[in-house]
Model the fold of this input.
Amino acid sequence: MADARPFHWEFEPPKIPRERYLVNGGVALEGTIQVSGAKNAALKMLAAATLTGERCRFSNVPEIEDVRTMAETLSDIGVVVDHPERNVYEVSAGDVDWLFVPLEAAAKMRASFMLLGPLLARFGEVVISNPGGDRIGRRPVDLHVDAMRALGATIDYRYGYYYAKAPGRLRASEVRFPIVSVMGTENAMLAATLADGHTVIRPAAQEPEVDDLISFLQKMGADVERTYPDTIEIEGKRRLRGAEHKVMPDRIEAGTFAIAAGVTGGNVVLEGADCATMDALVQVLGKAGVSVSCQPDRMEVDARSAGPGKLKPVDIETGPYPELATDIQPPTTVLLTQAAGDSRVHEEIFEDRLEWTGELAKMGAKIELKGPQLAIVHGPAKLRAADVEISDLRAGASLILAALAADGTSSIGGAHHVRRGYENIERKFLDLGARIERVQEGELGTSE
Ligand code: EPZ
Done:
């Protein structure tokens, strides 16, 4: 493997097309949309496919930028990635040319760090860029690194890169996390599938996407099981085989559209939504006065009798699953601007995930920050069109929701953030009767 080099000096930020959403609000959304596959499951499965040299096939993969970035990152290291039809990806990691995940990949997407566990476990070494932080807080990777060390790897950090080695085979171990981490759990679990012996991960994240990953790993022949709600146990195997898997529905996308119905006083049917994975949000919607009816693979959200300005205030607090997801906090905050009274929003997971509310305030929302992780939303606020800027994926979707509820035409810059994680969001909103378009603006030089 090449010795340490100051890769940063060679780094050129990716060029990102500069696009805006133009949203003419005031329409109550009505209709049916199909929920896409879950981003936060698909990305980990694409990484997990490198645990075997045999072909893995995934269906219901969302057509989003983050998936394209993961596919490109895999291709760049010599993995064969095919995209034979829409929403289907095939990955064959028989030969890998480079055990090196560059800063270019890490700068685009934190989930590139999910290649640490599988490449280290299968090939015994990898050099991988520190993904750093993004616009929702520091987001370190110390828990991932400590988990690999617990499994017997040696890891040095030089010039922004982790140099990880595990000559021979990783050794199974008890992996203890000081806090619950979704990708930390997943990285440790992927690595342990090929380690020598029995690994116990505790506390393991309980997000449904982790269980979808477990079910894919089982199809690959891995001996992995959630033995208690917060415990995953793995008996390492020498080899895994190729497998096929249909990615679970995206509960955050479904939640975003459920809230769109609530905030516009509409009625939306979400085909493919799995209510069982969305209980905390369903409860918040119910308390706010939005009616939700759940059937297998289908959810109907009816806010026609509640409507903007007539919802009830609700105090919310995010937390690891099964608590309310931090990713659905920004859309929920928009909903609470339409409640008749004050709501408390406590963001427990990420330190800067309320910062974007400054943009929401430009649209007339009355939000009082009591600290970086606590806000009081004073409702109801009459939202008005504004020119605002997106700082990250979920904040972006949330500004669209606010614009849908506002009078007039809003201009929302930074559409590329939303395209990272929502498949064709404007098409889906158009299908529900929204007036939205995405327009090009030229080129912007940097990523988040
Ligand atoms: C996953 O990020 C998701 N990303 C995030 O979704 C989601 O917000 C988050 O889980 C929490 O649910 C993907 O699955 C690709 P964590 P992850 O490790 O795994 C701290 C979206 O919008 N921590 O569970 O990186 C961390 O700072 C994205 O789709 C450490 O201190 O989150 C946070 O406070 C954004 N050290 C807490 O743990 C570490 O090494 C939980 O984060 C790792 C995390």
The pocket of EPZ is lined by residues 39-40, 43, 110-111, 137-144, 179, 181-184, 325-327, 349-350, 393-394, 421 (CB under 6 Å). The two ends are 30 Å apart (CA to CA). The first strand starts at residue 16 and ends at 24.
